[in-house]
Design goal:
Helices cover about 70% and strands about 5% of the residues. By secondary structure, it is of the alpha/beta class. The chain has two domains: about 5-80 and about 105-390, Amino acid/polyamine transporter I; about 500-649, HUPs (Rossmann fold, 3-Layer(aba) Sandwich), CATH 3.40.50. Strands 3-2-1-4-5 form a five-stranded parallel β-sheet, sandwiched between helices. α20 links the parallel β2 (about 530-540) and β3 (about 575-585). α4 (about 50-55) packs antiparallel against α11 and α7 (about 105-135) crosses α8. The radius of gyration is 29 Å and the shape is elongated. About 45% of the residues are buried.
Length: about 650
Amino acid sequence: MPDIKRIKHFFFGDPLNPFQPNTLRHVSLIAFLAWVGLGADGLSSSCYGPQEAYMALGIHTNFALYIAIATAITVFVISLGYNQVIELFPSGGGGYKVATQLLGPHIGLVSGAALIVDYVLTIAVSAASAMDAFFSLLPISFLAYKLVAEVALIFVLILLNMRGMKESIKFLMPIFLGFFVIHISLITYGIFAHHKGLLLIVPKTLKETSVTIAQVGWIPVLALILHAYSLGGGTYTGLEAVSNNVNRLREPRVATGKWTMFYMAVSLSFTAGGIILLFLLWQPVPTDGQTLNAVVFHDILGDSSFGQITLLATLLFEAGLLFVASNTGFLAGPSVLANMAIDGWMPNRFRHLSTRLVIQNGVILFGIFALGILLWCKGKVDLLVVLYSINVFITFSLSLLGMCVYWARQRSKASPRWVLRLLFSFFAFAITSSILCITLITKFQSGGWLTVMITLMVVFVCLLIKNHYRQFHRKLDRVDVELKQPIAHPLSDVKLDPQQPTAVILVGKSPGVAMHTLLNVIRMFPRHFKNFVFVSVGVVDVGSFAGQEELEKMRIEVDANLKYFVDYCKQYGMAAEAYAGFGTDTVHELTVLAEKISKKYLNCIFFASKLIFDHDNFLTRMLHNETALTMQRNLHLQGKELVILPMKI
């Protein structure tokens, strides 16, 4: 085995066969693993979301009680809203599919673009927060190396995710569970250790509320509470990840998804609400170089040796969980990208799977973009959280608005539950859209404008890609109609002679392009080739790797396309046969089939068509796979001939 293959095998592992019935089960997630992998983003937000909300209250810290209650309620409201999404869209896609199918494709594009930017920021903000927690343990002089550590963290995650979703989750599970256990214990201990203050919280909060309203009025008080509540909006991020990845869950998917959402809601509401309550009880004083969580946990644990060791373990687990949360962006983001690629908003290459059945191109793209934005903002968590929370609430709001539209349409069916579902969806929509508006208004000049611009840029690029694919497919459909000819004559049974000259024609999805290749071969080499062999590969991508039914449907389509060309040749008395391959890598499967065919037909030449555009540029090369050129290079290295026939389109 060459060194490069040995290294690849070491890092990425053995290839997986998508046609094995156990493979889908092997890569699917049970509710517990989904909670660990997809719920880490939400749970980790308790490391920075509550702090942002509490600090925004200024001197009116007693108002944190309202924030704690509102946070716990909001988590459950959004979770229940996304349970409806899981029911209606068990094939995954979440907020993107909801908006696309219920509000229209262009609204879906906005939701998808917001999700893409959101998951890039998930990686960036979690990596930055992880290093903030870790460097809270070190002297201030070490802060100069924090950005370098964040970059290294993202590179590790890219490599880890190349092995697969389940593998990365199992590797990071001990960190997640360690964080959860130690934080539940500290929150519980911190509240009971201050139980006398706990009894005074409600009367003190009510008293401060009445006094402040008497001084400035109820509108400024309400505005302050809503402002702080909206700044803690980062706490709810990650709740949408399950609905985006329902197709990755173990059957029955809907039930697994709902259990996952329940685990996420309970753990996040207790942790986030509990930490805000700790801030209210212990009144931590902000300290340079330390997170507010670090300060309050130090106050709770004290300066004893046991306290110092426990604090060290707590902050290490916080940093570790943020590391796990950063991984959520790599788990969920590429799936959104793949669903948008299926609909033509993104290049087709982002729906392809690696040999480990990973959306490899998406993982790499998200890693590069996360590194770019991390370097641009120099790892500042406060700026990243602003960018982060705006986009996630765009998707929240559009998804819940879509559910409102859906349940409003159900009234004609006289469903007894449509009214309650509609009211609940509207209530959830009102909460998320209010947080979105407040965050946009208050943080627009301090960074909010940037996330709006980035999202609009993604939308603009997607529109360009969609327009190109629309024109391309329109022309390709015309070619198929013009060149695909009916099978009218009786088929002759001409036997193949492996010793005679053989034309091997690569067949893609378009029958018109393959017919163009066949007709040109016959025209350029009249009566020279006695055998015609047609080769096609069914590509297992995100669309087909959703279950055995989809894989079987793809197999039938490939076989039917090849049978058409064999029958076409036989009706004119030409000997023909076909070879089909299936896998995640088109070039690899074609190369394997080419070796097999070359052994049988020693006097063979391979033919393929390459589409030529009027304006060939980087965009067209990015949007279309250069399979013919890659195959030509591979076959030339093996001493075989592949002739590329240009086809202008």
